[in-house]
Amino acid sequence: MAISKTSNVARPEIYRNLVKLQELSLVEKIIKRPIEYRAIPLNEGLSLLLGIKTRKYQKVSAETRLLLQTAKMEKTQTKKRKHESPYFVLIPKGRIIDKINSSIEKAQLSIDAVISWKRFSHGMVSSFAESIEKTREKKVKIRFIVENPLKNQTSKQLIENFKEKNCCQVRCIPRHPETIFGIYDKKEVFIIVFSKADLFGSSALWSDSESMISLASNYFELLWQKAIKCAY
User: Fold this and answer.
1) If DSSP states are collapsed to H, E and C, what string results for 72-109?
2) Are 145 and 115 in contact (CB under 8 A)?
3) Nearest partner of 113 among 48, 170, 65, judged by Cα
4) pTM flag (> 0.90)
5) Which domains does the chain show, CATH number per domain?
6) pLDDT, tens digit, for every residue of 58-91?
7) Residues 6+ apart with CB under 8 A from 198
């Protein structure tokens, strides 16, 4: 075969390449003895190769659009599943402060919490002071129910400082709360597992369950109606 002699490529390899070129319609097979092969004109060959590349690109583009559409649908379905199947997460005690701070800062409308006086005093002075200040600037409505503090100047000053902030209210109940919890924008709730533990001493159950939030909200409103203004 002339091509084999000219290119110094073995005949079997030449035939394999000719078959591929035929499949691409870049060469024509002339039926005669001996069989001959003829390349199509250069402009036709370039146009043909460009068409092949264009079709491949269109196929990849269509597959990409389908993949993106599928991913978007799966994301939408995930959101629906989240709505249909609420989460219940046990937050370890080592992360509870950061998680509550995050929820305070994300709040846009309301924060309702039932807490011990010890938690209230520590939180307002240090752990949650900065986050509470950020919510105050957004005019988030904040309500706290706490146990009656000791009647001293420190307690009085702390409550007065809190009440001076816009949208902040505090009421008192006679005894240490049986349940410590917080509700944020009525979209999520934290329930402290061990109510008499300090800020760093207990894990908490977090949930976005509408039923759990409704239960906590209704309980809070009942306590709020029974609680009294903290008087000095």
Assistant:
1) HHHHHHHHHHHHHCCCEEEECCCCHHHHHHHHHHHCCC
2) yes
3) 170
4) no
5) 2-40 (no CATH), 88-229 (3.30.870.10)
6) 888 888 888 888 888 777 666 655 556 678 999 9
7) 118, 119, 122
